[in-house]
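Support reply, case 0932

Customer input (verbatim):
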Amino acid sequence: MAFENYTIKDIAKALNLSTSTVSRALRDSYEISTDTKRMVLEYAEKINYRANPIARSLKEKKSYSIGVIVTEIANNFFSQVIDGIESVAYSKNYQVVISQMRESSVRERSNVEYLYSRSTDGLLIALSSETTDFSYLEQLMNKGFPIVFFDRVPNDLRCHKVIADNRQGGFDAIQYLVRKGKRKIAHLTGTRKLSITRERLEGYKMGLEANGLPYLPELVKHCEYGGLHQDEIEQAVTELLQEEYDAIFISGDKLSMGYLEAMKARPGADLTKIEVTGFTNSKVVNLFSPPITAVRQPAFEMGEKAAELLIQQIESKHLIEEFETIVFPTTLIEQGL
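Our regenerated output:
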């Protein structure tokens, strides 16, 4: 079945209006009366009118598309962030192009360069675990190309950033474990290069100090690729089993699932004796065995805010010189709740 491709001229002819009036009505312009807008929109819906994105982009010199780069789309947190981004983008008639870099700085840069070369209007990025060179991103921003970072952000670039309160989340996790009577708390986390790793480790240390517990470096294990490769978690678990600990705070979804998998495969490892809490946005966390007390980020809301900031920057008629760092609170969800 073929679909007829109606144009603004067709609507204008049918309603005996000028094409400029129809165009303004479809854009909800203040210059057009409410009755005329209603008439135009009702007729456009009746004929299933769809704006021609190519014609629109040529006229306005914009693609009406934004890029999103994350490490892994299947990650619970990132999939929820993307839902938030899309909810805002589509409401403002922007298309969303999503790519993943699997913790590779090379793939991250390749994705950025590809999306930029395809005239994407702006980018939303959560940095890879390998990224240490931000100069090419800074060069793009200096050219006026809008970029908003979320979750994994660069400390030194002047730009919009949307993050969770990782320090407080880590602190709350340790406070919870101490209330449960735990005194030797391990920490399984990602690469030191990432902002989220550093902030969650700070929260862990703050929690220990607040309760008079010593910080023991041998109980902190870093996985350079954040659990993307199970062998790095296996190595961390092997090293932790040589220590005595009664609880563990884990800094991410992949690490949490990988830790449980590795422990269950070890003969004699008793998971019931080790209390587990960690950052996870899994909706089935209570089905984990044993269940994990979750530190949850408002991922959908973070995606919404990041998209709003990016589109504001894209549509601004002036160069943006004042940038915001938006910090969302985390929530501790205890087992069984």
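We compared this against your earlier run and they match. Two observations from our side: DSSP finds twelve helices and twelve strands in the chain. The mean pLDDT is 91. Please reopen the case if you see a mismatch on your end.
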